[in-house]
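User: My advisor asked me to double-check a structure prediction for cysteine-S-conjugate beta-lyase before group meeting. I don't want to rely on an old file, so could you generate it fresh from this sequence?
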Amino acid sequence: MTTAFDPVINRRHTGSVKWDFMAEKLGLDGDDLLPMWVSDYDFQCPPTVLQALHQRVEHGVFGYAERDAAYYQAIIDWYRTQHHVEIEKDWITTVHGILPGLAVLLEVLTESGDKVVMQTPGYGAFRKITELNKRVLLENPLLEHAGTYTLDLAQLEMCFQQGAKVLLFCNPHNPTGKAWSTDDIFAVAQLCHQYQVWLFSDEIWGDLNMPGHQCHSALSLPSAITQRLIVATASSKTFGLSSLRISNLMIPNAELKQQFIRRLDAHGMDVFNSLSMCAATAAYQTAADWLAELKQYLQHNVDLLADYLKQHLPQLHFTAPEAGYLAWIDCRALAISDHELEQKLVHAGLVASMGIGFGKQGSGFIRLNLGCPQETLKKALHMLSNALA
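Assistant: Sure, here is a fresh prediction for cysteine-S-conjugate beta-lyase from the sequence you gave:
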């Protein structure tokens, strides 16, 4: 049966980073290349969001705009119904994307030369933002056994003992797709509380739990250990709104929130896009059922990949993600270099995210974006088989 996610939409020549800028970003050129790298999906955003945007555009006036009561209430209601967490309006601080928010936050919480911790393999932009802001990155490698990842709390404590000021905690984790348990999150938060380390919990993937799994927000932690907590959220990954550039940092600490807002003002980041606010509000208000259907479709893609690898590429190892639409595939049994692995894929026409880009712990892995119609995924799997079988 055809679903709303089956149509293949041509994204070429739309300014898409994923489809149109492989030459500039990756040094790869060719209209025959199939991009499965950037973590945005190839589906239209929810119809109710498109309708709200059309109505806003037809109004035709785009003067300065602010977040209204509906914007805040939509976020509060979403957290209550989707995550079973009660959040307060005063915690919500809007930013032009999580990474700009993190950069400003580092200005508030740290000074040049201070240490910042992240788990690896990990989101490369965390490293970039940290180092470009002249902070020192400490790696806390995840423990990996048979495709399952766990936190190394002993090593994390050693990082804190070295004087780290901030932990960048990807929850759920990119690129592995691990949805951390409540025990995991509590243990991390307790260590942060013990060593007076700020906990930045990036929960941008938190709405995309796969069926049978649950994502747990750090906002559900006891209030006694949330005064050094910042939770980053956005509608972008969930509803396909990445280029609209609107996110929220949840900051329970009122003093920190005021310091953060002052730094946003210092950078002139105090005006928001009316279309972005419209889209985010409509998504949270109206698209829960659409999201449930999307997650079922993504689960079918995960199953399709798993079955294909088992049948055609058994030397590759894959553990299904618990959240998100990114497949973290272990190619180490091929015993080839990362460069050779990439060249084989590109020669077959497939562009993946190379695991080495997520730190040395990612060497020998690739990350494939499963956020696409099944027709596209089947093409990618055929290319993968041609490259590596």
